[in-house]
Amino acid sequence: MSTLLNETSTFVEPAASPLLLLGQGRDLASERGVECTGALPAASDPDLVERARAARAALGDRAFVLGHHYQRDEVIDFADVTGDSFKLAQRAAARPEAEFVIFCGVHFMAESADILTTDAQQVVLPDMAAGCSMADMAEIGQVEEAWAVLEDAGIAGDTVPVTYMNSTAAIKAFTGRHGGTVCTSSNAQVALRWAFDKVGGVDGTGKVLFMPDQHLGRNTAVLQLGMSLDDCVVFDPRKPGGGLTAQELRDARMILWRGHCSVHGRFSQRNVDDVRAKVPGVNVLVHPECKHEVVTAADMVGSTEYIIKALEAAEPGSSWAIGTELNLVRRVARAHPDKQVHYLDSTVCFCSTMNRIDLPHLVWAMESLVEGRVVNRIVVDADDAHWARVALDQMLALPGI
Ligand code: SF4
């Protein structure tokens, strides 16, 4: 152990660091998991790409590697398919012959893949610390307490829970048990309309409890369902009663969970104003996880798949400022050298948890599988898997999906 030199020049042992080396060790209080076994290759290993190629070739059709749009290029290079979280889980389910599904994404995505794949398939997340800060903002105990608050206010029977794909399997299961549905950023409008129709329609008095992304819920309700901002309240799980009175809950139509994406939540209206001032004629295209002020100031709003298609359809020479995760924007810019693609805010960083999956972790996971060791397997318990599947199937049964 190294030592520190203090002001009086005596040597003192340092206090144990609360920090863990990246990818090594575990802190169950703050992370989900299981440590790498110490055999994690060094990022500086000059043979890393070759090791990845060799392990991938050795696994062959036994493995199916999924790469979320927000993953690093070094990981995407080894993905058999790229896409958003739901598309990837569906693609894994369509490959039942693949014994191992290596999910290069974050924890809730691997859970969804486990729910949708067969029992014979094993889903592996190369780094268990790849969580999602938004999904972690709605913990199942908090949601059950919130539902009890709605029951006390006399409105639970008139409320349909809807959860965004970016939530834990336990929250999806809660939604299934209570007659709700899952949604993605592409079908949130249809999902919300379906939910309101269950309790008297959009113009009635029924309510939706929307988790965990307040921004997607608010943007969809106001911009696509024609509700007003006054119809929305924010339920803060850290405050007694969600920080709301029973009357405020009764008067609301959209009860928004206090959660957000730490990447998309950083864009501001000022970013939009600045890019418009600097780039005349720029098209501002943002993800619906952005704040309401950003979405209303933008020209276009849509999911990651929508953003990719919008750039494919754009006129050569056109200018774009995109508000979503940086890995995706950089790849879109590279794919369209005939268009000017700007990042909406040059200070916004990558999704730090998505970036936990790097080539060393992917190599470690694949080499372990080649050696017959299944590491970092994601398994959703059977009851939660059943009810989460009910909620996911409900989403698939929505009109037009
Ligand atoms: S970009 Fe946001 S929603 Fe997506 S994984 Fe990262 S924190 Fe979660």
From TrEMBL:
Iminosuccinate binds at residues 68, 85, 164-166, 185, 287-289, 304. The lineage of its organism: Bacteria, Bacillati, Actinomycetota, Actinomycetes, Micrococcales. It is an enzyme of class 2 (transferase). Binds 1 [4Fe-4S] cluster per subunit. One of its GO terms (molecular function) is metal ion binding. Keywords: 4Fe-4S, Cytoplasm, Iron, Iron-sulfur, Metal-binding, Pyridine nucleotide biosynthesis, Transferase. One of its GO terms (biological process) is 'de novo' NAD+ biosynthetic process from L-aspartate. It is found in: Cytoplasm. Belongs to the quinolinate synthase family. Type 3 subfamily. Pathway: Cofactor biosynthesis; NAD(+) biosynthesis; quinolinate from iminoaspartate: step 1/1. This is Quinolinate synthase. It comes from Isoptericola dokdonensis DS-3.
